[in-house]
Structures are given as structure tokens and as C-alpha cells.
Amino acid sequence: MKRRPYHILVCNDDGIGAAGLLALVKEMKKLGVVTVVAPDKQQSAVGHAITMNSPLRITKVFRGKKFFGYAVSGTPADCVKIAIRAILKEKPDILVSGINHGSNTSINIIYSGTVSAATEGTILGIPSIAFSLTTYDKPDFHFAAKIAGKLAAMVLRKGIPAGTLLNVNIPPVPEKEIRGVKITRQGKTRWDDTFDVRRDPNNKEYYWLTGTLEIIDTSSDTDQIAVMNRYVSVTPIHYDLTNYRSLPALRRWKLNA
Amino acid sequence: MKRRPYHILVCNDDGIGAAGLLALVKEMKKLGVVTVVAPDKQQSAVGHAITMNSPLRITKVFRGKKFFGYAVSGTPADCVKIAIRAILKEKPDILVSGINHGSNTSINIIYSGTVSAATEGTILGIPSIAFSLTTYDKPDFHFAAKIAGKLAAMVLRKGIPAGTLLNVNIPPVPEKEIRGVKITRQGKTRWDDTFDVRRDPNNKEYYWLTGTLEIIDTSSDTDQIAVMNRYVSVTPIHYDLTNYRSLPALRRWKLNA
């Protein structure tokens, strides 16, 4: 039996003012004591960047007169490191990241700041979950927050295997249209990137990244397809990137000849 | 039989002026036609960040009067995307990233911009290799460049399984002290992060990340230990982060109750 309330660390990549973060904080307060440590500005697609060549600042953020959390002048991974190593006196029981505005399925996992915060939490030994609502348009975080609460409660009770985090993607549909929760694997997709070439007022070229996502693997057990089929997708991910299946073939290469 | 010379794309994360990049370019010119597309400034530890919310600039860089390559105002992953999608007319036969100043073994892989460039190349269907010399002090890229040439030639001949890249770490010792090349897996280490708290001239606090690396797994088949034992470490890595081993346990969770 735990003698004290759960301590929940909340982070994100959209910044400390994001609506998805507020929805997550509100829900987590039902489960325990919440500390918010989040980037002071938008940090989408920063991947697992950390700040080593410049210092970080921590600013206390208030909502009205009430203390809300700590804004950090860095990336999501920076926020988690500084929370654990410099702000908090004790390790939290769980880290939740999000709720991200936009999908973090398939190939997008590797670009995701939201997932990165949860990865850093896992590295530091904290059960961690990343939550994303798979839309940018008029996001309604009501159901996403509810499922976040349910999953966080479950992880607080059951834990997660060491070195594993949960990457959760929630379809942007009303609760009654959700078909359930599905354990998935990371899907295979590819960005068909294009660069929009424009000219600035000085007639110099600049390039803006855009593109469309191509789905390579349409299996129903992938995160991408599960969400399209209106399931909440829960994918266990880790940060051992070794491709064990290609070890035997490589070991036959005559590298020492 | 190939009718044309190999086309080699060279990228890094230390920036287009880095000594490790120059050494790699020089070696690659022995194998074919080289295009350099690299960040216009240091981009270490940016992980797999990409730039979506601001435009990118491309600047042609000359060494003396000779065209050297393209400097991009972005991350290593940006460089690879823009090289393939906007600069090059045809897909290169291989992408090499580095030679990084410093180790990219074990947990550092996920923070690495050098590895990120090779990951992005792999995503775009190009056989890709990341090279790192595991020292910051007075780096001598002579042997590292030589082994890079050998491995690149081998990959041009044999290819790499789709979706896999090679992460190569080279010990900073003279060639005669190298004990060979070893196929390894990603090691388990952890940064014992600490934040150095200082005060600026206005007496405001700032935080600087520092720390030491703790080795958790001391097996000789890991990248970290192989390099310590003076082997060149070659690790096949991929970007499917699914932890397949934890799928069965999670599927027993009553998530739809």
C-alpha cells in the first residue's frame, strides 16, 4: 500500500500553454499530485534533441494567481532531465507527455518531441506514457483526457516493463464512435516530402518542408491503421535500436580481411 | 555492372566546416562523385529533429575557389531531406554521415544528429552509414577515414537490408593498436545527468547540463565495450521502435473493460 498520493510529472512538446497539456493536467489531478515541467515554446518535431551547448532557464508559470508549473527554455527531453535532476526532490511515480496536437504514429514517432519526453522518462527509470490526439483541426481533448486518466491509473497499478514506454494515439472522434483500445505495433509509412521553394522580399530563395504521408503497411495491428479504424492505439516502444535480425548476415561479412 | 561512377552523399552534425567531414569527403572521393550537404553550424545532440515551423536556406560553400558543398540552415535530418528532395537530381548510391567528433554508442544513439542523418537516408531508401570517432580530444581522423572507405565500398557492393543502417564507432587509437572490426548490438548505458547551476551577470539562475556515463551492460558484444576494447564497432540499427516482447503481456491488460 502506498502511504502518500501518487506524484505525476506532466510534460509535452507543444509548450506550457497548449490546450492538450491543460486537459492532461486536469485529468491527472484526479489521480494524484501533479508537477508540470514543459517547454516555454512550441517544440514539435524536435525528436530526441537535448541542449548541451547553451544554458537552460526555468521560469515559474502562474495561471491567474495560482502556480501552474515550470517553463523550460529547451526541448521536451531537456524538460524531463531538468525536472528529475534539478526541480523535483523525489522521483515521480509516472510521467505523462501530451496530449499532443497531432498524430504520433508510425514514422512520426522518431520525429516526435512528445514521445521523446516519455522516452527520456523511461531512460530515467520512470513509467512513462505519451498521448497524442490525431488531429490538428479543432481538437477536442475530452475523450483523450479520459482515456489518458484510465491508462495512467492502470500503469500506476501494474507498472510497465523496464525500458518500455507506451505510445498512445487517440482518434479525433466522439467517444461513442470509438471502437475500443488496441495494442499495436509501430506502422510503416513514409513521408513523400516536398520542399515549397519561395522567394523572400530580397528575392532570395527559401525552402519550406511539406509533404503527404504514404502508408506502406496496411495491417490492422499497426498504430496508423488502428487509429484510422477508430481504435485507441497503445504501442509499447523502446530505445534499443539494434536490428537483431540483421546481425547474422553482417557477421558473415569479411570485415577483418 | 554499373555504367556510371558511384554517387555519394555526405552529411554530418558538426557542421560543414568540421574536420571529420573533410576527412570523410576526401576518402569518399576515392570511391566516386561526392555531394556534401551539411548543417551550416554545429548540430550535435539534436536527435532526429526536423524543421517544420520555419523555412530553410541553402548556401553554396567554397573552399578556396572550388565548390565544396551545400550548407543548410537546419538539422542533419533536414539536410538529408532537402538533399534528396530539392538539391540532387538522382538518388545517391550511398549516404555517409560524419565523421562525428565523439562517440555515438549505446544510449547516445538516440541523441545523435550524426546517426539521425543516416536514419533519414535509410527512410528515403538509401543505404546509409554513420561514422563516429570516439574522442573529443585532438581527433586524428586518419584511420577512421580509412575504415569508412572500406565499409562504404563494402556497402556499395553488398547493400544493406532495407530499413537498416550501420552505426560505426571507431576507437581513437593508432591503427596498429586496433584489434579488428566487430558486429555489435547497442549497449546499455545511462547518463548520470547533473545540472550545473550558475548565476548570470544579472544574478539570475541558469542551468547547464553535464554528467557522466554509467555502463549498465558490460558484455563484450555491445558497441560501448567493443570500442573500449579497441575494436571498430559496427551496429545494425533500425527505426521500428516497437518492443515486440512486451506485446503479449500488454494484450492481457483489460483495456476494453
Which labels suit this protein?
homodimer; 257 residues; Stationary-phase Survival Protein Sure Homolog, Chain: A; 6 helices; 11 strands; 24% helix; 31% strand; globular
Can you walk me through this structure?
- The structure is a homodimer.
- With about 260 residues, chain A is of the alpha/beta class.
- The first copy, chain A, has a single domain, classed as 3-Layer(aba) Sandwich (Stationary-phase Survival Protein Sure Homolog, Chain: A), CATH 3.40.1210.
- Chain A has 6 helices and 11 strands.
- In chain A, the strands form 2 sheets. In chain A, strands 3-4-2-1-5-6-7-11-8 form a 9-stranded mixed beta sheet, sandwiched between helices. In chain A, strands 9-10 form a two-stranded antiparallel ribbon.
- Chain A is globular.
- At the A-B interface, helix 2, helix 3, helix 4, strand 8 and strand 9 of A face helix 2, helix 3, helix 4, strand 8 and strand 9 of B.
Secondary-structure topology with pairs:
2 copies of one chain form a homodimer.
Chain A: E1 6-11, H1 19-28, E2 32-39, E3 58-63, E4 66-72, H2 76-87, E5 94-101, H3 113-123, E6 128-133, H4 142-158, E7 165-170, E8 180-183, E9 189-199, E10 205-215, H5 223-228, E11 231-237, H6 247-251
Parallel strand pairs in A: 1-2, 1-5, 2-4, 5-6, 6-7, 8-11
Antiparallel strand pairs in A: 3-4, 7-11, 9-10
The assembly state of the depicted protein chains is homodimer
Number of strands of chain A: 11
Domain module count of chain A: 1
Largest sheet: number of strands, sense, barrel closure of chain A: 9 strands, mixed
Unreliable stretches covering 5 or more consecutive residues of chain A: none
Largest interface (CB within 8 Å) is between:
A-B, 75 and 76 residues
What structural class should be given to the helix and strand makeup of chain A?
alpha/beta
CATH topology (fold) name of chain A: Stationary-phase Survival Protein Sure Homolog, Chain: A
The CATH H-level superfamily of chain A is: Survival protein SurE-like phosphatase/nucleotidase
